[in-house]
Specification:
It comes from Arthrobacter psychrochitiniphilus. With 281 residues, this protein is an alpha/beta fold. The chain folds into two domains: 21-131 and 236-277, Periplasmic binding protein-like II (D-Maltodextrin-Binding Protein, domain 2); 133-227, 3-Layer(aba) Sandwich (D-Maltodextrin-Binding Protein, domain 2). It is 29% helix and 25% strand. It has helices at residues 71-83, 97-102, 117-120, 139-142, 163-169, 172-177, 191-199, 210-219, 247-260, 263-270; strands at residues 21-23, 45-50, 53-54, 58-60, 68-69, 86-91, 108-114, 123-131, 133-137, 155-159, 184-188, 205-209, 225-227, 235-242. It is elongated, with a radius of gyration of 19 Å.
Length: 281
């Protein structure tokens, strides 16, 4: 994994209110072009549900307000430009992303969500980036974590409603078969809270997506290290749409075009992400 873009944003980025935050692409298009889906929540605008608390994918440029930046945010702007429409970011908490999509607050979720079987039961998804869970701990402990079973019996922090939390919760039987206790999982609403849980001694380990985990390490040098051998990067971030929506093929086609013309690779490099993790089919 490439070294991540160092920014002044602290690990304790504030929890955001459930209000929307609009950002224009800078264009004047109001109706789109021949590639634009006909059933947008608002004509001439693509609306993204997003939780800008997850650098380097989505976060506030000044830490708590202003422009929303990051790979996902800029990919959303590139999508709007491709369709010739404006973009609006509908800000919500992480566990409000899927409800926001289902209730019609937004057209898509572009916000660091795994394409898990449970999510694919209620929504469609097009792949955009390879990902997987990673374990972070204090340096002395991180060097001892070499497999999933090393988390058995330990206090583990993860973001609430995340696939990472579900992954650790599901380890109970595996730990039992190895003669060990299940991980003791604490779920927090913000990723910054999971960092603080480890730093304050409330948890031994935090489990976070590899993309965000590497950024957390850069912001907590000497305090956190990644145990890279604990999990395999075997999952994919997706761009989610409503189940069986006509938006689904339009999203897939749009991001395929943005990958082929190099737009997504350029956005990845802008945030010091390795462009090879961009995965669009």
């Amino acid at each position: 994994m490439a070294k991540f873009f160092k920014l002044a944003a602290a690990a304790s980025i504030s929890l955001l209110a459930l209000s929307g935050c609009s950002t224009s692409t800078g264009g004047d298009a109001a109706t789109g072009n021949s590639n634009t889906p006909a059933d947008l929540v608002k004509a001439g605008q693509v609306t993204l549900c997003i939780d800008p608390e997850y650098p380097p994918l989505e976060y506030y440029a000044d830490g708590s307000g202003g422009d929303i930046v990051g790979f996902d945010a800029d990919a959303g702007r590139a999508l709007a430009d491709h369709w010739g429409v404006k973009v609006k970011f509908e800000v919500t908490s992480f566990d409000g992303l899927m409800p926001g999509l289902q209730t019609g607050r937004c057209d898509i979720i572009l916000g660091g969500l795994y394409t898990s079987p449970a999510r694919l039961e209620v929504a469609d998804a097009a792949p955009i980036m390879n990902a997987g869970p990673a374990a972070l701990a204090a340096p002395a402990l991180a060097s001892k974590l070499t497999s999933k079973l090393d988390l058995c019996g330990r206090k583990v922090a993860a973001q609430a409603a995340s696939s990472n939390a579900a992954t650790v919760q599901a380890m109970g039987e595996e730990c039992k078969a190895a003669g060990k206790g299940a991980p003791i999982v604490s779920e927090y609403p913000k990723t910054s809270d999971t960092v603080l849980a480890v730093l304050n001694g409330k948890a031994d380990v935090l489990v976070e997506t590899n993309v965000a985990a590497a950024y957390m390490v850069t912001q907590n040098k000497g305090k956190l290290e990644m145990a890279s051998q604990v999990f395999d990067p075997d999952t994919t971030f997706g761009v989610f749409t409503k189940k069986d929506s006509s938006m689904t093929p339009a999203i897939a086609a749009a991001f395929k075009a943005l990958k082929e013309d190099g737009s997504l690779a350029e956005i990845a490099k802008k945030y010091d992400l390795d462009p090879t993790i961009v995965d669009v089919k």
